[in-house]
Amino acid sequence: MRLLIAIFAVMTAFAADPPPRIVYTKTFPGSTPAFVAITVERDGRVVYKEAVDDENPIKLQLAPADADAIFATVEKLDRFKRPLESGLKVANMGAKTFRFEQGREVHEIKFNYTVDQDGALLADWFERVIETEQLFINLERAVRFDKLGVNQALLRLESWWDRKRIVAEKQFLPLLDRVRKNESYLHMARERAEVLAAAFRGEVPKSTQ
Predict the structure, then answer these.
(1) Domain that holds residue 66
(2) Does residue 71 fall inside a structural domain?
(3) 95-131 exposure pattern, b = at least 16 Cβ within 10 A, e = fewer
(4) Which of 72, 58, 61, 70 is nearest to 168 (CA)?
(5) How many folded domains does the chain comprise?
(6) Model-level pTM greater than 0.85?
(7) CA angle, residues 29, 140, 204, in degrees to nearest 5
(8) 8, pLDDT greater than 90
(9) Exposure pattern of 69-94 as b/e (b: 16+ CB <10 Å)?
(10) DSSP state, 28?
């Protein structure tokens, strides 16, 4: 009986332990955006904000493999239990914070620049999220208010895709489908949206003229 009670207690403790999450914030006055906060849940859900009280955050979903890779990197960094700041005299690159949360376990580190390979890799991943969401915001605005500017927005998206800087590309599919199916947009924009949508769905290799 005591053994069963002990097993039940352990199982209950594990069941009560919430999944981990990562929170990244960056403050860089004078840059665009000047502030970002990105929350990554263990199941791959991501919330992107450009203000602490952002009432319309962008929500996206990572592929399981991408979420696994991010949290594996966090484990390599000891869940942010050790410093990352290089201490080198470098330019201000923005005040960055990594935060790990899992129930009562919370670890947080702040840094401007790091030479730690895993820390730099994780910081760059968050930079890719920022770049991606700036492209998303730009394309969404063009689709809604500037039809002549859609092709230019798609060209920028295509360039970042070629450079492998896009995160969670499927978030763009509703916008791309809207453009490619609507003849009110320029023909070249509809063609580019068609090719990008196919590439983001993994249907065909991307190539445009």
Answers:
(1) 17-114
(2) yes
(3) ebebbbbeeeeebebebbbbebebbeebbebbbbbbe
(4) 61
(5) 1
(6) yes
(7) 115
(8) no
(9) ebbebbeebebbeeebeeeeeeeeeb
(10) -
